[in-house]
Design brief:
By secondary structure, the protein is of the alpha+beta class. It is 41% helix and 16% strand. A 6-stranded antiparallel sheet has the order 1-2-3-4-6-5. A hairpin with a 2-residue loop joins β3 and β4.
């Protein structure tokens, strides 16, 4: 059962950021496991089970990040991540690909949670726009609901040239290359208590209608290509 992170876990991540090398980490690997990895896995499994209890048909799968960076990808900063995260998403029938996901992350500066369609395929976002064009009301209802809260923010890169103008309410959604709804918090008492699990669950409950909407896009037929003017 998740009991909260500790100030020592946050201190470890700060220290790792400034001592990101194999010798330093290997000497403190047991400390990393106890302070960071173990509570993260406890929180992740507990959250997954609670989400499945709410909606067994979702079949949400869990993925917890590893501390090791992929050294094949240029990134700088050393071989270890100074932040950890977990995501929940439905099974991908093809075995790989990009899917909308719930996420939680801890980093030296604080923690965050949300739901995102990160690096969504252009076809997926084209389906999203086509669905709004056909029937804007469901997404408009979600957009209005989103505008009435102040916990999450709408993020994601915008197209340099807007794809269309469905109106002030929907344009911020319509003209993004990918979409994520995020909440970021500084380190505070909430991070260090078992109540963090409930806080995350409340956030995921709010995000579920958005997750379901974006998750259903996969089944839409590809929209016809628009002619260039």
């Amino acid at each position: 059962m998740f009991q909260g992170f500790s100030q020592e876990a946050v201190d470890f991540l700060w220290a790792l950021r400034f001592n990101n090398n194999r010798e330093w980490f290997q000497e403190r690997k047991a400390e990393y496991t106890r302070l960071v990895s173990a509570p993260m896995k406890e929180l992740a499994v507990q959250t997954q089970q609670a989400m499945l209890d709410r909606n067994p048909e979702s079949r949400l799968e869990l993925r917890v990040s590893r501390i090791y960076r992929d050294m094949r990808i240029p990134h700088g900063g050393g071989p270890y991540k100074d932040h950890l995260w977990f995501v929940l998403h439905r099974p991908w029938e093809g075995g790989m690909g990009v899917l909308p996901s719930y996420y939680f992350e801890i980093r030296p500066e604080g923690w965050g949670m949300g739901m995102g369609y990160y690096s969504a395929a252009p076809l997926t976002m084209a389906k999203f726009r086509a669905r709004i064009d056909r029937d804007p009301d469901p997404m408009a209802k979600l957009a209005r609901r989103f505008s009435r809260q102040d916990q999450f923010t709408l993020e994601g890169p915008l197209y340099a040239r807007p794809k269309g103008d469905p109106g002030a309410l929907l344009s911020p959604w319509y003209n993004r290359k990918s979409i994520f709804l995020s909440c970021s918090r500084d380190c505070g008492d909430e991070l260090f208590t078992p109540e963090l699990a409930g806080r995350i669950l409340e956030g995921f409950d709010f995000l579920t209608p958005y997750f379901q909407y974006f998750d259903s896009l996969d089944a839409d037929a590809p929209p016809p290509e628009r002619r260039r003017r």
